[in-house]
Write a structure and sequence with these properties.
alpha+beta, Rossmann fold, 2 domains
Length: 426
């Protein structure tokens, strides 16, 4: 590939990236750094510690942990046979792998654990704006505490995180009951949906048998009148679930976190119980979820661990990045403080030496190893956003004196090269 200035002939065959797997270019990465560093700061305040699990797991983990009846496992998962003929999968979400690590390493013997993760997930779904085949999630999982105030605390953590980033998001809250009260409700819901299936879309009809709760999640306009009148689980909660939900609300009230009860907010998987929540934003036009979470008191057991309550959430970094861009939140890229412009070979070598000394002192600086005309070097200094420029030639090297040019005001002031670091620091 041609790297120099000017035009060139390209001899290689161009290969584009895979559809739905996107590059995050340096201009955008600063925003990603901010999302991730703020997450690390806020999560640490709440006692969450980072775990890093592999992108590849046994496919069976997701069949059991996410559910064989889900679109994620049925249609969207990247599954492949490795050389040992094991069926492996690229992780479509982060919770199952985190729970697997929690069980495999016996972390449950150490009492309650709060873990978080961030990284790429993979789903072969139809690429669309804000939804990609490789996408990135930040998520938290808390294990070993069944009490409702943990739910409230985790939701408050997410509210704090969005507030720190300057994102306005609405919290929607619901309870999906448990093994005591959900089965009778599901029987009623199924009977209602069967009686009204003529007015439902094809996807909803397909889900009535497999996963009736997910029907409530349907966004198709024509299904809404039927779903509006569907029986509500919130009105059928057993006493322990009702008490738990009331205490979650009391905890959120005490923490000053506003919420809206959304009776149709569901989590379609069997292991989800009680608290379900979602943060939505209309910054991108339509109401869209930026984070979703819920309590999963049976998941650790389902994946072969001891009975262990848990609650967690995940948020999508691509969508959050788009929201931050939309609301005008610009994360500043680190720009070089000084750009060394060389007037001759002696100056070029001194620039190299001085740049190294400044970098050791924690000061970002740049130079153009191509040398060339000083006008082109100054242009490069502006392109990289340097604050000051220092011209170096044989004369400056011999006297130890140079001019420090402020690239914003165009003012020049004399500077001793030995004092340069002190002058530009901060």
């Amino acid at each position: 590939m041609h790297h120099g200035r000017g035009s060139g002939i390209y001899a290689g065959v161009k290969i584009n990236g895979v559809k739905g797997m996107n590059d995050v270019l340096p201009a955008d990465v600063a925003r990603w750094h901010e999302m991730e560093s703020v997450a690390r700061e806020v999560f640490a305040l709440y006692g969450y510690r980072e775990v890093r699990t592999p992108a590849v797991e046994h496919a069976a983990l997701f069949a059991r942990g996410v559910g064989e009846a889900t679109d994620i496992v049925n249609k969207e998962m990247y599954v492949f046979e490795d050389k040992g003929e094991e069926l492996l999968a690229l992780r479509p979400e982060g919770t199952a792998g985190t729970v697997r690590a929690f069980i495999e390493h016996g972390a449950f013997v150490e009492g309650p654990q709060k873990w978080f993760y961030m990284g790429p997930m993979f789903r072969r779904e139809r690429p669309q704006k804000g939804r990609y085949r490789q996408f990135h999630q930040i998520g938290c999982e808390a294990f070993g505490v069944a009490e409702p105030y943990l739910d409230a605390e985790q939701i408050a953590l997410l509210a704090d995180y969005f507030a720190r980033l300057g994102v306005t998001a609405e919290l929607k809250l619901n309870s999906v009951g448990d093994a005591q009260c959900r089965p009778a409700y599901l029987a009623d819901l199924k009977a209602y949906l069967v009686a009204n299936q003529g007015a439902l879309c094809a996807d909803c009809k397909d889900r009535i048998e497999r996963n009736p709760l997910r029907v409530l999640d349907c966004k198709v306009e024509s299904c809404q009148p039927v779903l509006e009148k569907a029986p509500r689980l919130l009105e059928r909660l057993c006493e322990p679930c009702r008490t738990h939900f009331d205490q979650v609300k009391a905890g959120l009230d005490a923490l000053g976190v506003a919420y809206r009860i959304e009776p149709r907010l569901v989590r379609g998987l069997d292991y989800y119980v009680r608290t379900a929540y979602e943060f939505t934003s209309d910054a991108l036009g339509s109401q869209s979820a930026v984070a979703g979470g819920g309590r999963y008191d049976r998941l650790v057991e389902t994946l072969g661990g001891p009975p262990t309550p848990g609650i967690g959430f995940a948020l999508g970094e691509e969508r959050l990045s788009m929201i931050l861009e939309k609301v005008g939140r610009a994360a500043p890229e680190r720009r070089p403080a000084v750009f060394f412009v060389s007037a001759d070979a002696t100056g070029a070598l001194e620039g190299l030496r001085l740049a190294a000394a400044l970098r050791r002192a924690g000061i970002a600086c740049e130079l153009d190893p191509r040398g060339g005309k000083m006008k082109a070097q100054f242009k490069q200094a502006e392109r990289v956003g340097a604050r000051w420029a220092v011209v170096l030639g044989g004369n400056e090297v011999a006297t130890g004196q140079a001019k420090l040019k402020d690239l914003q005001t165009r003012e020049e002031t004399p500077v001793a090269l030995s004092e340069l670091a002190a002058r530009v620091a901060g």
